[in-house]
UniProtKB/TrEMBL annotation:
Keywords: Acyltransferase, Transferase. Its EC number is 2.3.1.234. Pfam families: TsaD. InterPro entries: ATPase_NBD, Gcp-like_dom, T6A_TsaB. Gene3D superfamilies: 3.30.420.40. This is tRNA (Adenosine(37)-N6)-threonylcarbamoyltransferase complex dimerization subunit type 1 TsaB. Residues 25-227 form the Gcp-like domain. GO terms for molecular function: tRNA N(6)-L-threonylcarbamoyladenine synthase activity.
Length: 235
């Protein structure tokens, strides 16, 4: 019962095929090429390598954000198109939760961070408790230095992951204390983690409407803000 998982929330393009207890294949690539160039060829290559036919797919799990507005739209539109065409379930998986799901370490706080531009980050906090991933703080937009300083006051070790962890590596190392930069294979998004959490949601009966599923943006796009400023729209 394989499902296809897609993550295009950042510059990382990642697709995976997985069953409930086995990762069949994964392609994860960080490049300057756009997701519109890479995503469908990667899906075709992935399924060919794993010898999985479209008719074999039982669902699609897709990372829904927060993250890059364009990347999220490409990933979500692809997932919804496949789910509609193949008449299989689609489930939207929060990007930050999927990242934490890929690091099942008890006793620490998991702090995935993604770039929200202008020195800000998307951040959420998680922990593993009795084999289950628990959300401590929902996704917010916050200034990166303030976020790291706040994390450094936690009583437990904090594993910082995501593109912003790499971008602000020097800040993390400068603050030190209880902050730990995640290892390279954990620090970026992986579609295998989207698949794992997606499978869990599907087993719990979660299904999202193909037409109604939308990205989890958290904040408005720069284009929306500029349009409102130019047209004098009240907030």
């Amino acid at each position: 019962m394989p499902i296809l998982a897609i993550d295009t929330a950042t510059l990382v393009s990642s697709v995976a095929l997985a069953t409930v207890d086995n990762l069949l294949a994964e392609i994860t690539l960080q490049t300057k090429k756009t997701h519109s160039e890479l995503l469908m060829p990667h899906i075709a290559k992935l399924m060919d390598m794993a010898q999985v036919a479209k008719a074999d797919l039982k669902g699609v799990a897709v990372s829904i954000g927060p993250g890059s507005f364009t990347g999220l739209r490409i990933g979500l539109s692809t997932a919804k198109t496949l789910a509609y065409a193949l008449q299989i379930p689609v489930v939207g998986v929060p990007t930050l939760a999927a990242m934490a799901y890929g690091c099942p370490v008890p006793g620490v706080i998991l702090a995935p961070m993604l770039d929200a531009q202008k020195g800000n980050v998307y951040q959420a906090l998680f922990e593993w408790h009795q084999g289950e991933l628990k959300e401590i703080q929902p996704a917010i937009v916050t200034e990166v230095t303030a976020a790291l300083e706040s994390l450094s006051q936690q009583e437990r070790p904090v594993v910082v992951m995501g593109e912003s962890a790499v971008m602000y590596r020097d800040k993390i190392e400068q603050i030190g204390k209880n902050l730990i930069l995640a290892a390279p294979h954990v620090v970026i998004q992986r579609a295998s983690s989207v698949a794992g959490l997606g499978y869990k949601l599907i087993k719990q009966g979660v299904r999202h409407d193909v037409m109604g599923l939308e990205p989890l943006y958290i904040r408005r796009s720069e284009a929306e803000v500029l349009w409102e400023c130019r047209h004098g729209v009240d907030k």
